[in-house]
Amino acid sequence: MKFKGIIFDLDGVLVHTDKLHYRAWKKIADARGIPFNEEMNNLLRGVSRMESLEIILRNYHGPALSAEEKEAIAEEKNRYYREELETMTPEDVTEEVRESLTALKAAGIKVAVGSSSKNTRFILKQVGLDKIFDGVSDGTNITKSKPDPEVFLKAAEYVSLAPADCLVVEDAVAGIEAAKSGGMKAAGIGDAASCEKTDYRIAALADLKDIVL
Ligand code: BG6
Ligand code: MG
Questions:
Q1: Is residue 68 domain-shared with residue 104, that is, in the same domain?
Q2: What is the pLDDT of residue 1?
Q3: Which residues are catalytic?
Q4: Domain boundary among 66, 85, 104
Q5: Ligand 1 binding pocket includes 146 (Cβ within 6 Å)
Q6: Residue 191: its pLDDT value, please?
Q7: Is the CB of 52 within 6 Å of ligand 1?
């Protein structure tokens, strides 16, 4: 076995909440006349809610916002996002994802989540993935978000593995960088597949068994 554990990013890897994040930020941006499109949204992958807002505000040229106003905007974004999350069901996880996780576990691989999102546990419950993981590290247990490795180092710790024994699966460039600076190998999917630091480029989670076993 090449790896003892796999740490999965959540948004954009296990579930397609990346589109929901985009729609929620788009409402915030449109209401304030801030230019925002899907390409800009890619810069927010893996980045915390407040840091995402700061990135969006680079294109805002109105009066300076206080910390309280920024906090209120971030909360408003999360309300829009949560409304969308409420509608998620187990059907929002593909069979391919579910089967891959089950097969990896059956082969003795530990599976964990490493996500910057504070909504991680809610999402996992909504889609019926709340029982399968051996460990969950998310936005509620970190002080620094990706590209800092903290979220993945905690995930490795939660499943009692050394970072070098873990493979991280990511759709975000910030996430690939986090994995690499944490001493882990990284598999990139989607946007992250073209990142030069990515060790393994994958098209689907079903490809993982050829890498880890
Ligand atoms: C990451 C997403 O998983 O979570 C980011 O890729 C998002 O786009 C971040 O900003 C924080 O999410 P939340 O749910 O705590 O607002
Ligand atoms: Mg992601």
A1: no
A2: 84
A3: 9, 11
A4: 85
A5: no
A6: 87
A7: yes
